[in-house]
From TrEMBL:
Species this chain originates from: Meiothermus ruber (strain ATCC 35948 / DSM 1279 / VKM B-1258 / 21) (Thermus ruber)
Kinase listed as a keyword: yes
Gene Ontology molecular function terms on file: kinase activity
Keyword presence, Kinase: yes
InterPro entries the record matches: PfkB_dom, Ribokinase-like
Name used for this protein in its record: PfkB domain-containing protein
Keywords: Kinase, Transferase
Length: 309
C-alpha cells in the first residue's frame, strides 16, 4: 500500500543538456516504480501472496501500472482516479549509476485510509500491512499524522503485523511520522532518513531512539554500501554487509531489501536470517536497470543470502 509510479529511466546521462539541444543516451525504459509497487511485486516474486493498494489516473501510465501489477503476480487493488494523473518520475542515471529524479506526485496524493479494505483482506487471510512511501502521501499524513496512525492502530487491533517505509521528506517536518511509530511493528527507514527523524547519528543509537519513539518490534536500517543494521526491541541486533555484486542501478534496492526481509519474516525465520535475506534482495535489484529487472525468485534469494557471513 502506498506510492505507485511510472518510472521513465534514461541512461547514461552525461552532464546537463543545454536548452534546445538533443542529448543521446543508450536506452530509455518505462518501468513500474514507487515503493509500494516495488516492494509488493518483489514479495510476489519471492512467493508471498500479495495485494497492492494505491491510486492511479485514468491515463496511459495508469493502464501500464495496472497491467504491471497483474504481470508481476500481485492482486491489483488499484483505484482508477479520474481527477488526477498517474504519478510519474523521470530517472536520469549517470555513468556511475547515480540517479537524479524529476517527479510529479499525481494520484498518490489522493490515497486515503478509506481506500484500504482492512477487514475484508484480514478475513481473506492477510497477515501483514505494509505502508510504503510515507511523506509522499498527503492523504495518509493529514496535518498531524492522524490518518495513517488511525489506519495502523485499527490494523493492529485486527491482528495485522504492521510495516512502514518512508521516502525523503522535502518539507523537513520529520516529526509527522512520530504518531505512527507506536502502531508500527517493523520500521525500515534508510539510515539517512532515520537520522533526521531521531536527530541521532550512530546507527545503534538511531535504532534505540526509534524504539523510544514507539516502534513495537523491529527496526531495520538500510545503510547502502554499508549493508544494514537490524535490531529488535529486546536488543537482539545484527549489522551485516552487502552481497558483493556489480551495481548497475540502485533503483528499488531499498524496497527489495524490505521485500526480502518481510518474505523471510512471514516464513517465521530468525531475525538474523531476515536481515540476510533483506540484504540479498537489495543486491538483486541493484544488478540490473529498474527496480524489478534483477529480481528472480526465492530460490536464488536463498543462495545469495547464504553468501553473507
Amino acid at each position: 500500500m502506498g506510492i505507485l509510479v511510472a518510472d521513465v529511466i534514461a541512461r547514461p546521462v552525461r552532464g546537463t543538456a543545454e536548452k534546445g539541444r538533443l542529448e543521446l543516451v543508450d536506452e530509455v525504459l518505462l518501468c513500474s516504480g514507487g515503493s509500494a509497487a516495488n516492494t509488493g511485486y518483489v514479495l510476489a516474486r519471492f512467493g508471498i501472496p500479495t495485494a497492492v493498494i494505491g491510486r492511479v489516473g485514468q491515463d496511459g501510465f495508469g493502464d501500464f501500472l495496472v497491467a504491471e501489477a497483474r504481470r508481476h503476480g500481485a492482486e491489483s487493488l488499484l483505484i482508477r482516479d479520474p481527477s488526477a494523473a498517474t504519478s510519474a518520475t523521470q530517472v536520469l542515471v549517470d555513468e556511475e549509476g547515480e540517479r537524479t529524479f524529476i517527479h510529479a506526485i499525481g494520484a498518490n496524493a489522493r490515497l486515503v485510509p478509506g481506500d484500504v479494505p482492512l477487514e475484508d483482506l484480514r478475513a481473506r487471510g492477510a497477515r501483514l500491512l505494509h505502508l510504503a512511501g510515507y511523506f509522499a502521501l498527503p492523504g495518509m499524513e493529514g496535518v498531524d499524522g492522524g490518518p495513517a496512525r488511525d489506519l495502523f492502530a485499527r490494523a493492529v487491533q485486527l491482528g495485522y503485523v504492521t510495516s512502514l517505509d518512508n521516502v525523503w521528506n522535502a518539507r523537513g517536518n520529520w516529526e509527522l511520522i512520530n504518531p505512527l511509530l507506536p502502531h508500527t511493528d517493523i520500521f525500515c527507514p534508510s539510515i539517512h532518513d532515520a537520522r533526521h527523524i531521531t536527530r541521532a547519528h550512530e546507527p545503534y543509537l538511531v535504532a534505540q531512539k526509534l524504539f523510544e519513539l514507539g516502534v513495537r518490534r523491529v527496526v531495520a536500517l538500510k545503510m547502502g554500501a554499508e549493508g544494514s543494521l537490524v535490531m529488535s526491541r529486546e536488543g537482539e541486533s545484527y549489522q551485516l554487509p552487502i552481497v558483493p555484486i556489480h551495481t548497475v542501478d540502485g533503483t528499488g534496492s531499498g524496497d527489495a531489501f524490505i521485500a526480502g526481509f518481510l518474505a523471510a519474516w512471514l516464513r517465521g525465520m530468525s531475525l538474523e536470517a531476515c536481515a540476510k535475506y533483506g540484504n540479498a534482495g537489495g543486491a538483486m535489484a541493484a544488478r540490473a536497470m529498474g527496480a524489478m529487472n534483477g529480481i528472480t525468485d526465492w530460490g536464488e534469494l536463498e543462495i545469495l543470502a547464504k553468501q553473507i557471513l
